[in-house]
Amino acid sequence: MTKNEREQFKAEFIVSDCPSLNEFCRQKGVSIHAVKDYCAKEKWMEQKNEHLRAIAEEVKKQDFENRTKEAVRNIEIRQNDTLNATQKAKDLFYTLIIQPNLEAKDLNALASALYRINEIEATILNGNKASKEQRDALDKLCDAIRGASQSDE
Predict the structure, then answer these.
(1) pTM exceeds 0.70 for this model
(2) Chain-centre distance of CA 101, in angstroms?
(3) C-alpha distances in angstroms, 152 versus 90, 96, 149?
(4) How far is residue 92's CA from residue 149's CA, in Å, rounded to a whole number?
(5) Model confidence over 95-123: pLDDT tens digits?
């Protein structure tokens, strides 16, 4: 085996999926004795392991980047969904507030609800995540408003 052939063989081994030099030699039809001394002297296994570590690091990096992008997409989707829900709640609020038989206590409850909706919306628009308490409050508010509007119909 010439030096160029040995260098080519070494390069192929380092990037191959074969875990051992014996198996790689068997696949390539090369006698292990022809390359064994060079492998030890030039530290082919260490180079192969370093190559595998570099690949693993790149995979981890890409996985982290993909997960980060997915998390950002999920946050944006949740923010948009929450903003849509707050807009629907506001629309319903303005529909209910013009009811002719609205009592003062109901008006006060609607005003408190609108204040709470505005707080939630401001939190989202300021780039902060709404707390679980705020999301729960919005869910309860929407349910209450839906219930109130259905009972009026």
Answers:
(1) no
(2) 49
(3) 17, 9, 5
(4) 8
(5) 877 777 878 787 778 778 888 877 777 77
